[in-house]
Design brief:
Blueprint: E1 2-10, H1 14-22, H2 26-30, E2 37-43, E3 51-58, E4 61-74, E5 78-85, E6 90-100, E7 103-113, H3 117-147
Antiparallel strand pairs: 1-7, 2-3, 3-4, 4-5, 5-6, 6-7
Amino acid sequence: MTTFQYTSLIAAPPETVWRFHERPDILNLLTPPWQPVEAIRREGGLGPGAVSEFRLWLGPIPITWIARHTDEYEPNQLFTDIQESGPLDAWTHRHRFEPEGEQTRLTDDIMFTLPVEWASEPLIGWFVLQRLRDMFEYRHKVTREACS
């Protein structure tokens, strides 16, 4: 299993940053324009059982990714989603909102397993981690601009 973390300070209280993540259009707002990803549906907000569905394009091949939110949920503090079906063998994404004075420490912790990990991780693991870094840099920038 591979781990990734991206964290930044947002100049707003956790409640503000949380409300931003509750927006019905959040998937479209946080998807970088260069990524071949289309948000298909979002049901249930951020709470346990909520579902997000995406269509990823690997060249001409469409892949459906469904993420379901788990019981690891504390309003204004934490929510976690897992891949229910998709391109990876496993995916867990923990979103943390921690107060730092009048600001929020926004942290995305991800654990994932690539298909055929023993072969794929040494070959493309670095590439996947760089794409995650690019994506979360963009997401945190959008969040900072919307909430500050």
